[in-house]
Design goal:
Elements (H helix, E strand, L loop, with lengths): L2 E5 L5 E4 L3 E5 L17 E9 L4 E7 L3 E8 L1 E6 L4 E5 L2 E6 L4 E7 L6 E8 L9 E6 L9 E6 L7 E2 L5 E7 L4 E5 L5 E9 L2 E3 L2 E3 L4 E5 L3 E6 L3 E9 L2
Parallel strand pairs: 13-14
Antiparallel strand pairs: 1-20, 2-3, 3-4, 4-11, 5-10, 6-9, 6-11, 7-8, 7-10, 9-12, 13-15, 15-22, 16-21, 17-20, 17-22, 18-19, 18-21
Length: 237
């Protein structure tokens, strides 16, 4: 049966700064819950809304793997490595902060918001040389199947990070069934619902719910409506 933890969408931390509205699945900034520090090596899962033309000024990071997944709109990125780029829905961006970087993120558009997930993974190597990468996905590649978008290996599909972690995206039609086999014994998997309703290992989940499962070999996934899902397999210790 394994172990599990359920985080309903409405129980998340809620930070509304006007220009930024952020929902925190795990403790972050002014939101602190000792029961919700992390899920294994998954340290931060922020669901961010940034108002038109607004954004995060230049700020530092170190020794963290940072994955950004835009859900709507266009996010402009600038960093101390000299990267200037725009990431859109369908893109995935990764930064290994390593020995230290600074970056800024802005909503490129003056007329519409940007929504994106910011995910932090604790790395398995400290003080690496900082690095940046981004890719564009084809949504057909995760229609009624799970598409790997993050892995520990440069040669594999998606972007890679310094951790034995794998992310998959799936966009499923109502009634679709699939399963997911844990890739590395001892890893857990955190499921986050981007749209619709889904049942995973008999647990019903709705929009923006999070569900972490560990000490299992596989997940059974059933789409109760048309749904979009992010699965994050991470080491638990």
């Amino acid at each position: 049966m394994g172990n599990s933890v359920l985080h309903k969408a409405e129980t998340r931390g809620d930070a509304d700064h006007g220009w930024l509205h952020s929902r925190h699945t795990f403790s972050f900034a002014d939101y602190y819950d000792p029961e919700r520090i992390n899920f294994g090596m998954l340290r931060v899962l922020n669901d961010d809304y940034v108002a038109p033309g607004m954004g995060f000024g230049t700020h530092p990071h170190d020794n963290m793997e940072i994955v950004s997944i835009p859900l709507e709109g266009d996010l402009e990125h600038k960093d101390s490595m000299g990267n200037i780029s725009v990431i859109n829905h369908g893109d995935i961006q990764v930064m290994s902060a390593g020995t230290g970087i600074t970056h800024s993120e802005y909503n490129k558009n003056k007329d519409k918001p940007v929504k994106f997930l910011q995910i932090w993974i604790i790395p398995n190597q400290r003080n690496v040389k900082p690095r940046y990468d981004q890719i564009t996905l084809n949504s057909k590649d995760h229609h009624n199947k799970l598409q790997q978008v993050v892995s520990p290996n440069q040669a594999d599909d998606g972007v890679w990070i310094y951790q034995k972690a794998w992310f998959h995206l799936g966009q499923f039609d109502k009634g679709f069934f699939t399963d997911y086999n844990i890739k590395l014994k001892g890893n857990g998997i955190y499921c986050f619902v981007l749209s619709g309703d889904v049942t995973i290992n008999n647990q019903q989940l709705n929009l923006r719910d999070g569900f972490g499962v560990w000490d299992v070999d596989k997940l059974i996934v059933k789409a109760d409506t048309d749904t979009e899902l992010l699965l994050m397999e991470v080491p638990m210790k």
